[in-house]
Design goal:
By secondary structure, this protein is of the alpha/beta class. The protein folds into three domains: 91 residues, Aminopeptidase (3-Layer(aba) Sandwich), CATH 3.40.630; 170 residues, HUPs (Rossmann fold, 3-Layer(aba) Sandwich), CATH 3.40.50; 255 residues, Orthogonal Bundle (Triphosphoribosyl-dephospho-CoA protein). Helices cover 52% and strands 11% of the residues. It contains 23 helices and twelve strands. Strands 1-2-3-4-5-7-6 form a seven-stranded mixed β-sheet, sandwiched between helices. It has a five-stranded parallel β-sheet with strand order 10-9-8-11-12, sandwiched between helices. A hairpin with a 4-residue loop joins strand 6 and strand 7. Helix 18 crosses helix 23 and helix 19 crosses helix 23. It starts with a strand and ends with a helix. The model has no long low-confidence stretch (mean pLDDT 91).
């Protein structure tokens, strides 16, 4: 009877719980898979695990029932509990992957079959896929049509070439953006890039993706005997679902794909596609990559971004992708500055510096909140005419509001937002007008953008400027950041590959910048002392000495936040002019 059993959550972060679940699953020849919630069924007065099951987002995993209790209905009770738990986290539809012989357990509970292979079945208990396919039917066109599914991480000239070649063979092409958010760029950004990059091509419809592309995040391997078979089973399920539902909804009869010379997993997917889709009525056409032996690929582009080289990356993308690259590199520059450890008086991976109201997590939340607005500024600047300052100010104020919401009112990156925002607009404008982004043109463009900004009122920086007659953030920008382009950037260019190059560049900045944050916290004498100590440490550098300076700055409530902002700006400008 149900009253004889109770369901308890089993946090797997507790070692004893994890061991108990692993041993219980092993009795059914199952493995513990990645889950973020796990629950067990116990007798009302006992501690022996009788049934268990987990959730990863909206996917049910790791269901097992004691062999002696299969007729007690424990699986149904447990699945109902997991469905209810998923609903409390906003998931109205729950999915499950299981062995084919367990299919009836879930169909009897109202789950519907989505896809199947000899090794696994994929079901859900809602109408999510049905609703998505109804939406896809709104895009249907007459004639011979084909589909391209792309991740576009980011969208390149190679992706556009694939679509152009497909258009030569069918009347209309549907492009579906992969929705999964495990990429360098978010699903929203990738969809935006695809739409912008294909907007001038006739007979192309860009369709939003869905959660029905089976991903590494959701697909379980716990019931497969060999982990090496997991990828093939996952891809086969994905292709079966595509043929049964996606292609049918669009009325498409051809799937186009680019050749894959480098990634073995993608190459295997292409091979399975050619094996499995034709028998389900879908022709597969593999198109050679643009570039031949040196193909244009998103993976190659990401390598350039990782090395901080916009110029090399830009050669692989249409102009419409450039704003996304600029915003990404600016965001990465802030993350590089944040992660640099140790730093004197500043938040890093080890401590909060001289701050009591922010830590690494808060700073990261701030960076993530600012990214969409840096992208807006990049789009705004990517125009042949220089954008109006009021538009830049509006986006800046919206960004500040998002930052404060993410940090619960803490000013984490206002200075960085201003300097990076100006530079993004200037760089985007240079690219849009085909002037080239080099140090001379960028310095001039930044000054030209900044001179239109009114002087701020009642900010710490402006008060320091008036009291001590030192340059404010606006003054530095209006002058085109002369120290950055004349000293800091050249120094970083030489030392960017050094193990302590970032630390030393920060000290170069600290030794020469009138940091208004230090002035505001501790006054003029201490600001001069910070410069002196930074210069001494630079000439006799060690990480231990840097850590000692951090402790001293914490004791003195010193935080050279302006120098941190300039380090992020230096890293960003290096990446777009390198």
């Amino acid at each position: 009877m149900y009253s004889d059993y109770e369901i308890r959550q089993l946090p797997l972060s507790v070692g004893a719980n994890r061991l108990m679940v692993e041993r219980f699953l092993a009795q059914s020849q199952l493995r513990l898979d990645d889950v973020d919630y796990y629950a067990g069924v116990f007798s009302a007065d006992g501690d022996e695990l009788l049934a268990g099951g987990g959730l990863l987002g909206d996917v049910i995993k790791c269901i097992a029932v004691d062999n002696n209790l299969r007729s007690e209905g424990l699986a149904a009770r447990l699945v109902s509990h997991l469905i209810s738990t998923a609903a409390t986290h906003g998931h109205q539809s729950v999915k499950v992957f299981t062995k084919p012989e367990n299919r009836h357990i879930f169909t009897e509970m109202g789950f519907r079959l989505l896809a199947e292979t000899p090794a696994a079945v994929f079901l859900e208990n809602g109408r999510g896929l049905e609703v998505y396919c109804q939406h896809l039917r709104e895009f249907r066109h007459e004639g011979k049509t084909g589909v391209i599914v792309m991740n576009a991480n980011p969208f390149t000239l190679g992706h556009r070439y694939l679509v152009e070649q497909a258009l030569r063979q069918v009347d209309h092409v549907y492009v579906i953006a992969v929705e999964e958010n495990r990429s360098l760029f978010s699903s929203e950004e990738r969809l935006s890039m695809i739409r912008a990059g294909l907007s001038d091509l006739p007979n192309v419809t860009v369709c939003p993706g869905s959660a029905y592309s089976i991903s590494q995040a959701t697909f379980p391997t716990y019931f497969l005997k060999e982990l090496s078979t997991a990828a093939d089973v996952q891809m086969a399920l994905d292709l079966n679902l595509f043929a049964r539902h996606i292609a049918t909804a669009l009325g498409a009869t051809t799937r186009f794909v680019g050749t894959e010379p480098d990634d073995p997993l993608t190459a295997r997917y292409n091979m399975l596609m050619q094996e499995l889709l034709p028998v389900q009525g879908i022709a597969v056409v593999e198109i050679p990559r643009l570039g031949g032996d040196n193909p244009v690929s998103a993976s190659r582009l990401r390598q350039f971004l990782a090395k901080g080289s916009l110029k090399n990356a830009a050669q692989l993308v249409p102009s419409t992708t450039i704003p996304h690259l600029l915003a990404y590199l600016a965001t990465q520059a802030m993350k590089v500055e944040l992660d640099l450890t140790p730093k004197p008086g500043l938040v890093d991976r080890h401590d909060n510096g001289a701050h009591t109201d922010m830590d690494h997590a808060v700073m990261m939340a701030s960076i993530n909140a600012l990214h969409p607005y840096l992208l807006q500024l990049a789009h705004l600047g990517h125009n042949e005419t220089m954008p109006d300052v009021t538009c830049m100010q509006r986006i800046g104020l919206e960004a500040e509001s998002a930052m404060f919401q993410a940090t619960h009112g803490v000013n984490t990156h206002r200075g960085a937002l201003f300097s990076l925002g100006l530079t993004i607009v200037a760089a985007a404008h240079l690219h849009a007008t085909s002037q080239g982004i080099d140090t001379n043109s960028l310095q001039t463009a930044i000054a030209n953008v900044a001179k239109h900004f009114p002087r701020p009122e009642n900010t710490h920086g402006e008060k320091v400027h008036q009291q001590y007659q030192v340059g404010s953030a606006l003054d530095h920008a209006m002058n085109g950041y002369p120290r950055l382009f004349g000293e800091w950037l050249p120094y970083y260019n030489v030392h960017s590959n050094d193990e302590q190059g970032l630390h030393k560049t920060l000290l170069v900045i600290m030794s020469t910048l009138d940091d208004t944050n230090v002035y505001h916290r501790c006054g003029e004498a201490m600001a001069h002392d910070v410069k002196r100590k930074a210069s001494l440490l630079l000439h006799d550098f060690s990480l231990n000495a840097m850590a000692d300076m951090n402790r001293a700055f914490i004791d003195s409530n010193l935080s050279p936040g302006g120098s941190a902002d300039m380090l992020a700006l230096t890293v960003f400008i290096h990446s777009i002019t390198n």
